[in-house]
Amino acid sequence: MASKAFKAIIVGGGPVGLTAAHSLSRANLDFVVLEQRPKVVLDAGSNLVLLPIGLRVLSQLGLLPAIEAVSSPMDKFRRIDHNSKDIGDTLWFTHFKDNHGAYPRVISRHDLMQIIHDGLPAEAQAKLLPNKKVVGVSTGPDGVTVTCTDGTTYTGTIVVGADGAHSTVRRQMRSEALQGPTATEVNEEKPFLTTYRSLWVRFPTVAPIKPGDASETHGHNCTLQLFAGKDTSVIGIYERMEKPTREGARYGEADELAFVERWGHLPVIKGGMTIKEAYTNRTQAGMVNLEEGILSRWSWDRVVLAGDAAHKFTPSTGAGCNTGLVDIVVLANELFHAFRAVRVAENNPEAFPGKEPILAAFNEYQQARFETVRDGMKGASEATGAATWSDATHRFVDRYVLSRPSLVKLFANRTAADVAKTPVFAYIEGDADQMVGKFPWAYPMKVVAP
Predict the structure, then answer these.
(1) Domain FAD-binding: where (predicted)?
(2) What is the mean pLDDT of the chain?
């Protein structure tokens, strides 16, 4: 028997959480978003790279024109070593354009968040609640309850944990699972391994850096990526740690200064500034660990995880945020199928699925995503290993394989067919697909009937 009400509690108001809000709003389903920060849209965080798979999701939500207005397309990576010597440009981004119809675009986290937020209708925006730090998640036969530090509680049908690598929902999910009958199915307490730490720095875009520039500096134990926007640029510097760890870390300004002391001499771009100069002129900066890993279970009972809460990549391929957006697409589609099945079976367009169909949808979601996410995580790790010359093989590949355009094109074309299998929302109608390349998308967008 279908339940009489459905409500999703989304924990985490980042790009993945707000995309989940869009997916539910478009399905006319009730939800609330709980965000621990004082505002949902903050001027904080590093820049993000939107790949064609992520751009397609945002395009289907009607957000692509706004994205294009405040982001910069990138056609290639310029690559130099620690001594500012050329080691060969890579044309990955040009191959994305040829194969899938769009260049990757660099955008500030603030601008992306503002666009996704403003794309929601007013009644949906009213369901985005800041200053809601979650401390408890408990499931029951009829629903789930979420408790916040301010004493408020929220009840619903499911919880979607989109609260990042240090997910509170994931910890609460594990605690619930430990009380169940099959402890062997419980995720590890510390599922992610950290091999690299990162300092990111935002600074004004000034010559010789131009909007749209993408550059990498490679060498032993340290690499950096530059992404230049119209007004500001961001560098992410990735340092191989002395020993991998599963322990978390909090860094302060003293740690940043020590990091700059170690690597401040490295060039950000050929003929341009150094890391130290960028840091001196910073408008924002931060230092974090770069966790890597993928959970064996993405859901437990009425709780399901998406994005960095379920899997974490190094940033080298720019795939992290995009992967989270596609997670929401697949999860939303599986829930849509569950809703459609019960409404057809009961001949009732207002019916909602019960617990078992929802849990089955969660399982189908993980099965549909697991191998693709695992391969993406491995690719990101290999890219960071090559850029930091972690061993002789990685150094050889970086200097003498990835510098050859014909081989890069071969690699891009070998993965293009799998990329083209990335799904879009099965139930959202919109304009015709604007991204058309040599590899047709396996799942075309649903176009509004004329």
Answers:
(1) 7-182, 281-340
(2) 93
Residue 366 is part of which domain span?
Answer: 7-75+102-190+293-447
Report the SS3 class of residue 127.
coil
Residue 163: pLDDT band (50, 70, 90) is very high
Assigned token pair, 358: 């929802």
The length of the chain in residues reads 450
Predicted model pTM: 0.95
∠ CA 290-229-12, rounded to 5°: 45
Q: Which two tokens stand for residue 311?
A: 């899997």
Both tokens of residue 309?
């809460």
- Cross-sheet strand order for the sheet of 193-204: 78-81, 214-218, 222-228, 232-245, 193-204, 284-294, 311-312
Task: Tell whether 171 and 266 lie within a shared domain.
Answer: no
Rounded Cα distance between 17 and 181, Å, is: 31
Taking residues 352-359, report their average pLDDT: 95
Q: 140-150 as b/e, with b when 16 or more CB fall inside 10 Å?
A: eeebbebebee
Count up the domains in the chain and report the number.
Answer: 2
* 306, 331 contact by CB (below 8 A): yes
Q: Are residues 34 and 135 in the same domain?
A: yes
